[in-house]
Amino acid sequence: MKRNPPVRDSRVEWIEHGDPETWIHGIVADMERMLAVELAIRGRARMLLSGGTTPAPAYAQLAVAPLDWSKITVGLVDERWLSPQDSASNARLVRESLLDRADVGRFEPLVREGLTLAESVHAANVEAEHAQEACVAVLGMGNDGHTASLFPGSADLDRALASPLPYAALDASGCPVAGDWPLRITLTPAGLARTRHRLLLLRGETKREVFLRALQGDDVRELPIRAALGIGLEPVRVHWCE
Q1: E-assigned strand segments in 118-235
Q2: 8 Å CB contact between 114 and 24
Q3: Does position 5 have pLDDT exceeding 90, yes or no?
Q4: How far apart are CA 70 and CA 55, in angstroms?
Q5: Is 217 exposed, middle or buried (0-12, 13-18, 19+ CB in 10 A)?
Q6: How many CB atoms lie within 10 A of CB 135?
Q7: How far apart are CA 90 and CA 118, in angstroms?
């Protein structure tokens, strides 16, 4: 692998891995450490997970970590507006990669069966407002600079970015990256700010270049990943490999 220049920014801890296997091990080590510290200090822990195939192997490996899973709550960073049983839902991916392997104390889906989109968002916000602060949120980023379901160019982006609540509904119609599921529930910057640690998982040179461009500006509407930068006391820990 070619040697890249170091990423120097006070808002970021950049961890570069030589191959996918060490990348997964590094992610899991971070998550296990953060959860163990939270359990030791507070007796319980809560984390928010993203969907997609990129983090799934890390979740599967984390599931065998020697943690008191009965005291851990798992929530979601975002979700498509479809059934939690649908093969394309983040809830199903998290369930198959982690929840079916570790007996967690509680799972907080974002889509609630029998509720409308607005009702599901309200339920998620009520739950989040009364829940323990998440010790870690696992984030991804698209080639367009989106994170969670904060898609650049979406009609609801400004409202979601400005929301004081942890979660918002978002219509990403017309955003190609949203695919066949434009209606979403997403963590907002306000919700992201409530998490103690943020892990950003990146693979490939294109995403490295997009992220480096994000560091060079401050327009969150252009590259929503910027919403994860410079918030809270801890820098974003970015795990990257080719």
Answers
A1: 136-139, 167-171, 183-187, 197-203
A2: no
A3: no
A4: 22
A5: exposed
A6: 23
A7: 19
The Cα–Cα gap between 40 and 139 comes to 24
Residue 182's nearest CA partner among 153, 221, 211 is 153
pLDDT at 98 over 60: yes
**96 HSE (CA, 13 A, CB side):** 16
pLDDT tens figures, 170-184: 999 989 989 889 999
- Please name the amino acid found at residue 23: W
Inter-residue contact 185 to 82 (CB < 8 Å): no
Neighbours of 221 (CB within 10 A): 15
If residue 88 lies in a helix (H) or strand (E), which one and from where to where?
A: none
Q: Which pLDDT belongs to residue 8?
A: 86
Tell me phi and psi for residue 47, to 5 degrees: -135, 155
